[in-house]
Amino acid sequence: MASNFVVQIFAENLTETFEHYKKAFNADILFEGKADNGDLIHLEMNIMGNRIALSPPLPCGNIKGNITVLCLKFQQKEALLTAYNILQEDGHSNGLSELPWSPLEGYVTDKYGVNWCIGL
User: What is the CATH classification number for the domain harbouring 7?
Assistant: First the structure.
């Protein structure tokens, strides 16, 4: 059975947010949805084989009780370090370290408030 699971990220500026993740993960656009006036209102991208959607914030405000961490496992240390360095710009992290299940892993909250767990 095919998976229809899509991770949704709410962002003020979809183009800026996509460019940030393109730089961090070499993401590419899978789909762009535009309003009748041509404004971008939905963007889906491929990050390491995962379909992730960007949409403007919901009119009801912040979503409460839903703290999510997106976990990505890299094959190459260099790609992990590139992503880590970009994600922590204007964000925060406690660093990368060796863990019992990973030779290198860490948590980063990026400048958009998205929580990432990245490791080898």
Answer: 3.30.720.120
